[in-house]
Amino acid sequence: MSIQDESGTTLAYKKKTTGAYGALPGATGAKYLRKIDSTFALKKSAIESKEKRSDGQRTKPRHGMRMSSGNVTGHLSTGTYADFIASCLRRDFAEVADLAALTNVTASATAPHFVRAAGSWLDTPLRVGMVIHQAGWTTTGVANNAKNFTIVEMTATGITVAEPVAAKASGDSVVISVPGKVTYVPATGRTKDEYVFEGDNPDAGLSLLHLGQRVSSVELELMPDDNIGITITFFGQDSAKDVTTYFTSVAQESITKILTGLSGGVYLDGIEQGVVTSFKLKIDNKLSTGKAVGSKVTPDVFYTDTQVNGSMTVYLDSDDIYDKFDQESAINFVVRLDETDAINCPFVAIAIPDSTIVDGSLSKDNNARTISFNFEAGRGQGTNGWQDTTIQIQDSGA
């Protein structure tokens, strides 16, 4: 054997669908994961003696409970981390059905941009924060076809979007679709997904399987001139080792482009924030393990309520955000993360219906002044076109 190079290591994973908690799944169907780093490791508690000995020395400790946990850091790209985002929100990504063709919709260059003469947008599967595509516009409205439109406000008759709209009178047969798939924190029917990871060190002849892994948290960090970072934290039951890999015929990593802070937008209460210098978001289930007599491993990993919080820093150009903090005003967010500047590029879109600024502070250096604030989200009530949830995420590559 030889000393293992970092460049020669791999990390593969498989989502389990059957079998007892902590058991190995079948050896096929795993996939390599794109990553910057991973920290999966076997951990054990130490059981120490409290004896008082005549020789004034200590009895050596024993190994206690076993646990395997760690995190994966990477750069966000469409589809790559969709499994884990869905597991953290505890609802699988799902397609949203296309709307039946409508002939009574008018496109307007000013808000609300898409107005229907009859029926209600609120009775459709569309929700604020979703990115939609349209087809069927003719003549002056052709530019609206196959273009990403981000819904930032919705009423029964009107949809307001973030992007420019080409005006067109009603009469065209327009079909609206939602690209990719959507998930959110559900009120009922929450999933409890389990993964197995395998970290292989082929030069050293050491393959480590990390069993019973559940997603504890997902964190995103958006900076204006950098890749968008993602950190996923896992809690699991145990680890096992071998000299060869367990998974066979492992699928290759995704090759989608890394998302950066240079394309997309952040919308606060429906208004684009062109002065954002950083945006951080954390979705956290605060997982924990248990103990049982006669066992060295936890019988399962246990959930709390899903919590969503984050922080944001913006250049100080008005008193609006300070007033929202001072008056404890409810705020909502829509964040769209684009792969490129193309009108129909791949994307990830995030919607937070109801949150509160919990603290804020002004910068004190000699550069342009900024205000930084932390926010915490609660469950929205599903009014004004928002999903009744704490957070909704759409991934065009899911």
Radius of gyration: 25 Å
**Helix/sheet category:** mainly beta
Helix content: under 10%
Give the biggest sheet: 18 strands, antiparallel
Count helical runs.
2
How would you sum up this structure, described in words?
This protein is 4% helix and 41% strand. It contains 2 helices and 26 strands. It folds into 2 domains: 286 residues, no CATH class; 75 residues. The model has no long low-confidence stretch (mean pLDDT 93). With 398 residues, the protein is mainly β. The two termini are 40 Å apart. The strands form 3 sheets. It has an 18-stranded antiparallel beta sheet that branches. It has a 6-stranded antiparallel beta sheet with strand order 6-7-10-9-8-11, with no helix packed on it. Strands 20-21 form a two-stranded antiparallel ribbon.
Blueprint (SSEs and pairs):
Blueprint: E1 10-16, E2 31-32, E3 37-38, E4 41-47, E5 62-75, H1 82-89, E6 105-107, E7 114-116, E8 131-135, E9 149-154, E10 158-161, E11 175-177, E12 181-184, E13 194-201, E14 206-222, E15 229-235, E16 238-242, E17 264-268, E18 271-272, E19 276-284, E20 288-289, E21 301-302, E22 307-315, H2 320-326, E23 330-338, E24 347-362, E25 370-377, E26 392-395
Antiparallel strand pairs: 1-2, 1-13, 3-5, 4-5, 5-15, 6-7, 7-10, 8-9, 8-11, 9-10, 12-26, 13-14, 14-15, 14-16, 14-19, 17-18, 17-23, 19-22, 20-21, 22-25, 23-24, 24-25, 24-26
Structure characteristics:
18-stranded antiparallel β-sheet, 41% strand, mainly beta, 6-stranded antiparallel β-sheet, 26 strands, 2 domains, 398 residues
Briefly, what is this?
This protein is mostly beta strands. The chain contains two helices and 26 strands.
